[in-house]
Design a protein that fits this description.
about 375 residues, alpha/beta, TIM Barrel, two-stranded antiparallel sheet, 12 helices, 12 strands, globular, disordered C terminus
Length: about 375
């Protein structure tokens, strides 16, 4: 049995409930200071990028598909033996497992779950909460417990999740930077640890920039981005008339090129498309304009991976998650789990004739 979540956690959609408007403070002194820092960083960044872009080549050879395609899994949805069978069928090597900081004293079920996948590379995504902001000592204590417990299994950890959404605990980016500052001594105890962060959800480049360029003492190895584009429909569609998925990736990579806080590695650790008629498991309103049917989700999944692959800027892309009716690859609502079209689309990406290996890929608008 997995530990119970707090009452502010929506177990159906695997995220905190939306905050009441009264709980969203927008114009405090700390918010004003954060906005000022963001503006100053935004002014300085283009000058640094112009100076650096002439000599830096951001592109690299794309990894093999098996090293590129990742998948989130959760013990809340199925037992490990069932998931292992499905993962083996897909051929996925890289897995992501969420471990909440609020369960730092109840890690045994998470450890038993992770131990079922010894032949896979596991990224532990450590979730923060409002408690970690209000009780600042709780974060470093939880982080060290989690890393110490999982270090025999993996050395890859993402610090924080969706840090630009107040329902996840951080009122603004400065709160997240403070959390990172509190664990700057991790490498002294765990010299081989690989720390991923930024953890900005959706396309908010100013928030990402604040985590990548500043004078705080922390240091990250990998820039992680929860780069959802589902509200635009197809990944080739544009936001603000300029930014489709490819251009979003290129901009984030450009910001990373001038970072003084992070190594030059970029992972997308969450993406998906919510499905029609799956409430309460879908994480959004369920309205047809922001959800898709199963064949469309499968097509968008393939297109997303193809676009990210061909940029040569991304090391990994993790789909969130395997077994989840609202946005995953498998419908868990029936007695017999049903593999959806997206399951077979991801499987195809890892096959010997993977679409990622096609020489010519022309996106349909």
């Amino acid at each position: 049995m997995m530990p119970d979540h707090p009452d502010w956690w929506d177990a159906n959609s695997d995220q905190p409930y939306r905050l009441d408007k009264r709980d969203k403070t927008r114009f405090s002194v700390s918010h004003s200071l954060e906005y000022t820092k963001t503006v100053l960083t935004t002014i300085i960044a283009p000058l640094l990028w112009l100076a650096k872009s002439q000599s830096d080549d951001l592109k690299r050879k794309s990894p093999d598909p098996i090293d590129f395609v990742g998948l989130g899994i959760s013990a809340d949805r199925a037992d490990a033996s069932e998931l292992l069978e499905l993962i083996s069928e897909l051929g996925v090597r890289h897995l992501l497992i969420r471990v909440p900081a609020w369960h730092a004293d109840q890690l045994e079920p998470y450890l038993r779950f992770a131990e079922n996948f010894p032949d896979r590379s596991i990224l532990i995504n450590i979730l923060q909460s409002r408690e970690n902001i209000s009780n600042r000592n709780s974060w470093p204590i939880a982080i060290k417990k989690i890393i110490e417990s999982f270090y025999p299994i993996t050395n890859e950890f993402q610090l924080g999740n969706a840090i630009n959404r107040s329902k996840w605990g951080c009122r603004h980016v400065q709160d997240y930077l403070n959390l990172l500052d509190m664990v700057i001594d991790l490498r002294e105890q765990f010299p081989e640890v690989i720390l991923a962060g930024s953890s900005v959800i959706d396309f908010e480049p100013l928030a990402t920039l604040r985590t990548l360029l500043n004078f705080h003492p922390y240091r990250l190895d990998v820039c992680s981005s929860l780069l959802y584009v589902n509200r635009r429909g197809a990944p080739s569609n544009y936001q603000f008339g300029v930014f489709n998925l490819e251009n979003k990736i290129r901009l984030i990579a450009s910001l990373l090129s001038i970072s003084n806080k992070c190594g030059k590695r970029l992972w997308i650790t969450e993406t998906n498309w919510p499905l029609l008629d799956t409430q309460p498991f879908t994480p959004n309103s369920g309205h047809p304009r922001s959800t898709v049917d199963e064949p469309t989700q499968a097509k968008y999944l393939t297109d997303y991976y193809k676009i990210a692959w061909r940029t040569g800027l991304i090391e990994r892309v993790y789909w969130w998650q395997l077994k989840q009716a609202g946005y995953g690859l498998i419908d868990h609502r029936t007695t017999q789990s049903r593999k959806m079209a997206s399951f077979y689309a991801l499987k195809k990406l890892l096959a010997s004739d993977s679409p990622l290996l096609e020489d010519n890929f022309n996106m349909q608008k």
